[in-house]
Design goal:
This protein is mostly helical and 468 residues long. The protein is built from 19 helices and no strands. It is a multi-pass membrane protein.
Length: 468
């Protein structure tokens, strides 16, 4: 992050913030760092487009499904302890993924990365919230945090192209090892020791229900194997397991998701809207590099370099959103407009005429929406529940990404099948997916507008009752 941004804080808090944002950068980086490398992985491992989605979804599903558990572990056993455990597992998974030994091992290693990310990410956010109490400093810190996360998503595509061209696709995972080990070694110097267990215990039935439910739901929606009945029954079983959380959590002595969070309208709204944003975010970074390489015949290096404008717009908008108010609705509208513009995807498209403008709009929209949604998802949360609240908002984005990728891939495959084979069919499929992403963005914008109106109405009534 920029030095002048961190210099607002004391040296200790600034360095801690740098470590936490670096960890979040790596976590988000790995949601998109495989995207430009997918054609190269396909050539080596011989996977279909549906199979390639599991190189992405193995990480997203493990990450999203276990985030509530990771958040609860941070609340129970201390943020630093949980952060270290997650970082160790994340680096270990990255190391295994960097060994090109076959599709099965790669997918398993991606899942291990996702488990580590699910443990360390909410712990990192809980540490940030504890070091920066509510006020302007927290807003700026969350802006830097959001900028790091946004930059991670965009930088993943850029690094994927650079590293795949220079060293091979295996190197995209080695970069997380090279960055993760120094981060791990700096923890004792920058993050205070936990004061001890905060009491309570892990809600194992709730953890199993949410993990299995989310996994079955996303796997079922993304699967193209088996009969139609099987493809219906698997996600249905996931929904049943998720619905079982309601009675399970009511009976639990120490529930995984404290009921007070579900009663917080800001937390609920933030998570629902982040779910929709995640669907769009991951889908965009999946289909754009495929279009560039399979339709426009870009090299991995060129496809990666052309993500720079999007990355710059993301970072600038995220940093700006930490200083401004009410950027959520404009951000979602910009995102929808950019996606509709990008969805033209001509067979003879050029970067300046067809990709540059929409890429900038998409980057601005994602950045302006992500930071306020993160803040909304932890708004009014008791510090005791900061870890699980941070886990929930990250769960929404990752699970949204996995759900969105499954749905948009289905749209793409169906549309491509109508055209047969070849670049024209692929382009038709990618267009349909991006139009679907634009529709999701518009739905999120409508939801954000409704929440803003309701929140404004509650504030007005509260002001009137106070003055009477």
């Amino acid at each position: 992050m920029r030095v002048h941004a961190l210099s607002r804080y004391s040296d200790s808090r600034g360095l801690t913030l740098a470590l936490l944002t670096a960890a979040q950068f790596l976590v988000v980086l790995n949601t998109s760092i495989v995207n430009v490398a997918l054609p190269a992985i396909d050539r080596d491992l011989g996977l279909s487009q549906t199979g390639l989605t599991w190189i992405v979804n193995a990480y997203l599903i493990a990450f999203g499904a276990l985030l509530p558990v990771g958040g609860r572990l941070a609340d129970l056993f201390g943020s630093r302890t949980t952060f270290v455990a997650g970082l160790v597992l994340f680096v270990g998974g990255s190391l295994v993924a960097s060994v090109p030994a076959g599709a099965g091992l790669l997918i398993a290693a991606r899942a291990a990365q996702g488990v580590g990310a699910a443990v360390l990410s909410p712990a990192a956010l809980a540490i940030l919230l504890s070091r920066f109490p509510p006020g302007p400093d927290r807003g700026r810190a969350l802006g830097i945090w959001g900028a790091a996360a946004a930059a991670g998503g965009a930088a993943g595509v850029l690094l994927s192209g650079l590293l795949t061209s220079a060293l091979g696709w295996w190197s995209i995972f080695a970069v997380s090892v090279a960055a993760g080990v120094p981060a791990l070694l700096s923890v004792p110097c920058l993050i205070p020791r936990d004061t001890g267990s905060r009491g309570g215990r892990l809600d194992v039935p709730g953890a199993l229900a949410v993990t299995a439910g989310l996994t079955l739901l996303v796997y079922g929606l993304g699967s193209r194997d088996g009969s139609g009945a099987e493809r219906f029954l698997v996600p249905a079983a996931g929904i049943v397991l998720l619905l079982s959380l309601v009675p399970l959590e009511r009976r639990a002595t120490d529930p995984l998701i404290p009921p007070v969070l579900l009663g917080n309208r800001s937390v609920v709204a933030g998570n629902l809207l982040m779910l929709l944003l995640g669907m769009v975010w991951v889908g965009t970074f999946f289909f754009l590099p495929l279009y560039q390489q399979k339709v426009l015949s870009y090299s991995p290096l060129t496809a990666g370099l052309t993500q720079l404008p999007l990355a710059g717009a993301l970072m600038a908008a995220s940093a700006l959103a930490g200083r401004l108010r009410s950027t959520l609705l404009p951000g979602l509208v910009l995102l929808a407009v950019g996606l509709l513009w990008l969805a033209r995807l001509p067979l003879d498209g050029t970067f300046p005429a067809d990709l540059l403008g929409p890429s900038i709009l998409i980057g601005l929209g994602l950045g302006l929406a992500f930071v306020p949604l993160t803040a909304l998802g932890v708004s009014g949360v008791d510090p005791r529940h900061a870890g699980v609240a941070g886990g929930l908002i990250n769960t929404a984005r990752q699970v949204g990404g996995a759900l969105g990728l499954a749905i948009l891939t289905s749209l793409s495959s169906t549309a491509a099948a109508e055209k047969g084979l070849g670049p024209a069919a692929l382009a038709q499929g990618y267009r349909r997916a991006l139009i679907g992403a634009a529709v999701i963005s518009l739905l999120a914008a409508i939801g954000a507008g409704v929440h803003a109106l309701r929140d404004s109405g509650r504030t007005s009534r509260s002001t009137v009752s106070t003055t009477q």
